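Extended Data, panel c. Modelled sequence:
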Amino acid sequence: MAATSAAAQDSSVAGSQRLSDLAYRKVLEGLFDRTVPAGAFVSQNDLVNLLGIPVQPLRDALRVLEAEGVLTIHPRSGIQFLKPDLELARSTYQFRTIIERAAARAYAETADADVVAGLIADHKALLADIEQAGFDGAALVRLGELEERLHGGMIASLRNPLVETTSRRLKNYVTLIRLDRLVTQPLALRTLREHLDILEAAAARDADAAEAALVGHFQAALQRILGMF
């Protein structure tokens, strides 16, 4: 009987955790698709109605998101979501640079050669497609996938779960910062070429060049973002 009770309790805890994780993802999705506008001040009930999330998992998710800096909970008042500004952009890219400089070096030294070659080929293919056919929604999706593969691969090369957790939080900030950014064909081509500089240095196992290319990429990306504000 005791074993059955303990198993039921464990199952209940696991179920609650899954609901909290789902609520976490739904709040972020609501923010990223503008169901909840950046900078909005809303009540808990507003979020329940907007996102269709039960109250208790929502509360758990909000506490996590507050710890991650995405929102502030004001007791008996409401929830204030983060509104991107110049300072957030600068701070985010400064932190990303600190982390990913080391990641670029590790990637150049340890990344699987076939993986790097595949990324180079996919970047060049998208470059050619955009130059020939123009930049559309499908190309934007492909660009996002390549960005995730490159930067995610570099972070993974550090084999550090603390860095991976921090990187996921920074990715949320970057997504918020870019919400109102229009990605044009010239910007997409520039980003792809900056990625290729990093990848070609990694293919040559040149950690110094990979680090320098990463720093240059982030400096250029920050300047592009600052132009939005």
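The chain has a mean pLDDT of 91. This feature is highlighted in the accompanying rendering.
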